[in-house]
Design a protein that fits this description.
about 190 residues; alpha+beta; 2 domains; five-stranded mixed beta sheet; 4 helices; about 20% strand; elongated; disordered N terminus
């Protein structure tokens, strides 16, 4: 009884909300303009219990997509990147920001002239925190992780159902073979 209480307590603790630092990125396949939010602190974020994956992550990118549609930028592909550590989230932000703001390396000219500086192929627009902030999203199905015994019982039950279904199919197959055999015998006589 004490073991069950401890395991349910630890399982419940893993579904508690936590603080995360996230930023959004939006781009379009038909436009060279990309949008980025700053790294924002979001309280009451739910993470999956094993991989620390953002639960309901599509709702966070939907918030950014709806904001961009509201300001007249439809059809944007939006992503949200997060980390529980601010420094790590900031590092991810910097890496993505640099990818879209660094100038392309100029190619050497064949005639020996100095290469011309090329503009960046993307136009970066930062979204200010005063205009857009992520809001915490409640998980849609707050399902507590199952204990090992529960998972084992479910697996055993699924195997039993599969075995029963195989037996039913086998008996139906035998019955059909017998019917075919009987029809052939009747056709011969």
């Amino acid at each position: 009884m004490a073991i069950a209480a401890i395991s349910s307590f630890t399982a419940h603790a893993k579904n508690d909300p936590t603080t995360a630092y996230m930023f959004g990125f939006a781009s379009s396949f038909s436009d060279s303009t990309v949008y980025m939010t700053s790294v924002q602190r979001v309280d009451s974020v739910y993470l999956t219990h094993k991989k620390l994956f953002l639960d309901n992550r599509e709702n966070y990118s939907l918030q950014l997509k709806e904001y961009l549609e509201k300001i007249g930028e439809p059809k944007r592909t939006c992503i949200v990147i997060f980390d529980r550590n601010f420094k790590k989230a900031e590092k991810k932000w910097t890496k993505l920001h640099d990818r879209y703001t660094k100038q392309a390396k100029p190619k050497r000219q064949k005639n020996g002239e100095k290469p011309k500086d090329l503009p960046t192929p993307w136009q970066m627009k930062n979204i200010d925190e005063s205009k857009f902030m992520f809001k915490a999203v409640e998980p849609s199905d707050m399902e507590e992780p199952k204990t090992k015994a529960e998972r084992k019982a479910e697996k055993k039950e699924a195997k039993a159902q599969l075995k029963q279904k195989k037996a039913e199919v086998k008996s139906q197959l035998k019955q059909r073979k017998a019917e075919v055999k009987q029809k052939k015998a009747e056709a011969r006589s």
